[in-house]
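> Could you send the Transmembrane protein 216 prediction when you get a chance?

Sure thing. Input:
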Amino acid sequence: MVNSSLAYEILLYINSFYFGLFATCELGTLILKSVLIIEKYDVEKDPTKLGRDYGVLIGLFIIEAARLILGRKGSLSEKDIPVLFSVLLTVPSIMGVLYLLIFQVVVLRIEYIWCTLMLCIQTLEFVFASMFIVSLCRGPSYD
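Output:
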């Protein structure tokens, strides 16, 4: 049987570094796009497009940071409540990444790669966190 606690902790560790890279790159590309695409995509006529992109990005940063902190706290102390909240926060985090992947004003090819990798990591974390919660809910086995 797979040690879900170890796999989940490794994925959280990897995601804590990747999230910093993802956040920096996404914010940088969004600032660059907001400077360069104003004339091309008529953002001046409807400025809510870029405002919505910035709002989703900031919300994603907050949710993902809280999710990682709760996941690490619950995994290290082997408590199921913080991990359960981390799993619940995975859903809005995945929705935010899907928004960045599909519904932005302009999506660059490199963003497809960043967002797809982020979705893969989040999906694996969701699976292993669920396995970890199930293993915590079962009683200890004395084999």
